[in-house]
Amino acid sequence: MFTVAGGQILDSQVLVLNKHYMAFRIIGLRRAMSLVVRNLAEIISCDDGASWSNYDFNSWRELSALKQTFEADTCDWISTVNFDIAVPRVIRLLFYDRLPRQTVKFNRRNLFARDGNRCQYCGKKFPTSELSLDHVVPRTLGGGSQWDNIVCACTKCNTKKGGRTPEQAHMTLIQKPVKPKRNPVIHLHLNHDRYKSWKQFLDHAYWSVELT
Fold it and tell me: Whole-structure pTM over 0.85, yes or no?
């Protein structure tokens, strides 16, 4: 149904709240719009730093027409055959009250985010493609694949360390690896103005977004 103007907008993410306005997860733009069109969710628009308004698909379309006339440069836009509609940043599920999960998934994305794409031996920052994951205590010495035993390492440092512990290789970790208390990827999003409206919904007593 929708085509999106601008390649980067295809990568837009939408914060999902449960019906009690508690942050639940992050999903892609296409899936978010599908939920709204099917009346399974409504769009939440932050009016200022302390309040917001609720819109179904039709009322959001009407608001988008006004925005396009008077403040088009403040929004990203979805283009359809018959009209343009502003990209939403937050939606609320209308029939779902599940609380967010209180665990952070153990996966490569979260490991890279936890370490900030920085080699934990030399301290330099690298693109993800130039980083690997290193077992601090090698598996051959009984080290496990867990939060406190895996760190990001650049190719040079990983090769230098080899199948040894940091002490054996005369290398030092710049910080001790630990399991994050909340999802580290969220900080990458909040650094972008596009997602600033998420902040008022992030209650750290519950916050643990599941990325899908």
Answer: no
